[in-house]
């Protein structure tokens, strides 16, 4: 009998199943299309001895020790509900289903509640690190009942990435907490990727070839910007297309895909009244990138408004660092807001810690973020933590120069400028919403608070339609 079951042997599921088998946990596996299961067993080598192939969800459930834990790793959305529907008749009260795919945490909450009614526990488990991570050590973010987590914690911590020996896996709260944290991870990933794309765009607008930029990113990966995304950017810039010999970037269509986690981050930020503007700009930038023909028409209609920005690498380095700190900060304050709204008590320092290895945004910054959070964030904000405030004092002048020069020379830098505007707005004790409040009162008698008196519901002396 197997200790655990897994259905969905696509890219991630197959890698996760082999990782689990490799750590010595007997696992029963299943896939909707049976030939995929056969292929996996053929390619599993020695690991096949620890894996039991099954050809139906009933057979899968029958091969797992009771109380059962079955991982689902299928395409997000309806397929997850379909698989849960197919699995439940073969499970008993006390069993547990783990959704290890990406999921909208609202769906995770709905599924948790529905399954709890049947006595079946549900864990929403975010897994980051792509195929390589799933196979050899991902970062794992779990939400759901403590006792269900306790039953599989040994497996999950065994397969997770390690940072200085510590597993990058944790239960972060009830129901949707794990999937929410994974979603925000991806939102931060969107912002970080976009900033790196923007800065590469600025460098290339100076006529520099990708291969010449690779050493710059390699160098950056040796300092405070050290992290997986900077590392792979250097590698990508150094890569040539095998067919044409051109830089690989020059043969890749500049139209970015997205599966939804960035959008979910922004939607939840808006619902919670938070400002994840750098992430939002990154999501919008992908949408704009997909408008290939419109952009071509735009270039034809508005030629000659772009020049070489001519920014030096040290300025761009600091601009990226400032934007990264601000993007992470927005992500962490969104996590804090969600944790309060949904009563999850997420340990944000632990989140930073489990992101230090295995996941796509792993970077040197996360260790410092964990320390800053444990020391207590003023106003719950990373940008006010003493160490990060020092970093921002040193680097935001470069971000400002970069955004200003990019704007002047017609180069788009939406994520960097969103991060900078957020920073500038956040360091104003008195902003410009006095006029917004006056306008709201003028047309709708919404009332305002005064700076010189207590109380609410004051009105201006206007004779507008709302007066
Ligand atoms: P793949 O496309 O490689 O595999 C999809 C799997 O889902 C297949 O096993 C497929 O079965 C199964 N499936 C799809 N629809 C159904 C259905 N209606 N009923 C039963 N099974 C179904 O996807 P990935 O492995 O890349 O992704 C799986 C999950 O992991 C997704 O939620 C994804 O967002 C998430 N994820 C992916 C990452 C990545 O880098 N790829 C990283 C982190 C998370 P069949 O073979 O029969 O078609």
From TrEMBL:
The keyword Cell division does not apply. Residues 178-463 form the 6-phosphogluconate dehydrogenase C-terminal domain. Pathway: Carbohydrate degradation; pentose phosphate pathway; D-ribulose 5-phosphate from D-glucose 6-phosphate (oxidative stage): step 3/3. NADP(+) binds at residues 8-13, 31-33, 74-76, 102. One of its GO terms (molecular function) is NADP binding. The active site is at 182 (proton acceptor), 189 (proton donor). Substrate binds at residues 102, 128-130, 185-186, 190, 259, 286, 440, 446. Coiled coil: none annotated. One of its GO terms (biological process) is D-gluconate metabolic process. It is an enzyme of class 1 (oxidoreductase). Keywords: Gluconate utilization, NADP, Oxidoreductase, Pentose shunt. SUPFAM superfamilies: 6-phosphogluconate dehydrogenase C-terminal domain-like, NAD(P)-binding Rossmann-fold domains. Its EC number is 1.1.1.44. Belongs to the 6-phosphogluconate dehydrogenase family. Homodimer. Catalyzes the oxidative decarboxylation of 6-phosphogluconate to ribulose 5-phosphate and CO(2), with concomitant reduction of NADP to NADPH. PANTHER family: 6-PHOSPHOGLUCONATE DEHYDROGENASE (PTHR11811). This is 6-phosphogluconate dehydrogenase, decarboxylating. It comes from Silicimonas algicola.
């Amino acid at each position: 009998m197997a200790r655990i079951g897994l259905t969905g042997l696509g890219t991630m599921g197959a890698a996760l199943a082999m990782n689990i088998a490799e750590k010595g946990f007997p696992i029963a596996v299943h896939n909707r299309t049976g030939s995929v299961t056969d292929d996996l067993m053929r390619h599993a080598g020695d690991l096949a001895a620890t894996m039991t192939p099954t050809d139906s969800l009933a057979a899968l459930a029958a091969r797992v020790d009771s109380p059962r834990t079955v991982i689902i790793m299928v395409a997000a959305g309806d397929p997850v509900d379909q698989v849960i529907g197919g699995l439940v008749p073969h499970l008993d009260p006390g069993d547990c289903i783990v959704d290890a795919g990406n999921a909208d945490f609202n769906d995770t909450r709905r599924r948790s509640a529905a399954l709890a009614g049947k006595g079946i526990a549900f864990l929403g488990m975010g897994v980051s690190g792509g195929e390589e991570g799933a196979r050899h050590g991902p970062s794992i973010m779990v939400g759901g009942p403590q006792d269900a987590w306790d039953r599989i914690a040994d497996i999950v911590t065994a397969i997770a990435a390690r940072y200085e020996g510590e597993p990058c896996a944790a239960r972060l709260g009830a129901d949707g907490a794990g999937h929410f944290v994974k979603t925000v991870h991806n939102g931060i990933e969107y912002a970080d990727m976009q900033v790196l794309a923007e800065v590469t765009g600025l460098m290339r607008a100076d006529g520099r070839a990708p291969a010449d930029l690779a050493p710059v990113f390699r160098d950056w990966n040796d300092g405070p910007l050290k992290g997986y995304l900077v590392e792979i950017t250097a590698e990508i810039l150094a890569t040539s297309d095998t067919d044409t010999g051109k830089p690989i970037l020059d043969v890749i269509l500049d139209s970015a895909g997205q599966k939804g986690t960035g959008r979910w981050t922004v939607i939840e930020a808006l619902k919670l009244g938070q400002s994840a503007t750098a992430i939002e700009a990154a999501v919008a930038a992908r949408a704009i990138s997909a408008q290939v023909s419109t952009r071509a028409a735009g270039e034809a209609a508005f030629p000659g408004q772009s020049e070489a920005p001519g920014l030096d690498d040290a300025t761009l380095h600091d601009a990226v660092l400032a934007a990264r700190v601000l993007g992470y900060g927005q992500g962490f304050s969104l996590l804090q807001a969600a944790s309060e709204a949904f009563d999850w008590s997420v340990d944000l320092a632990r989140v930073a810690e489990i992101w230090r290895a295995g996941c796509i945004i792993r970077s040197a910054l996360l260790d410092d973020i964990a320390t800053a959070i444990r020391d207590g964030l003023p106003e719950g904000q990373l940008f006010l933590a003493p160490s990060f405030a020092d970093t921002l004092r040193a680097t935001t002048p470069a971000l400002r120069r970069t955004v200003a020069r990019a704007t002047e020379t017609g180069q788009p830098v939406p994520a960097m400028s969103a991060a900078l505007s957020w920073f500038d707005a956040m360091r104003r004790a008195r902003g410009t919403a006095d006029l917004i409040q006056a306008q709201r009162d003028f047309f709708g008698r919404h009332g305002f608070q005064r700076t010189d008196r207590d109380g609410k519901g004051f009105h201006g002396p206007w004779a507008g339609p709302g007066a």
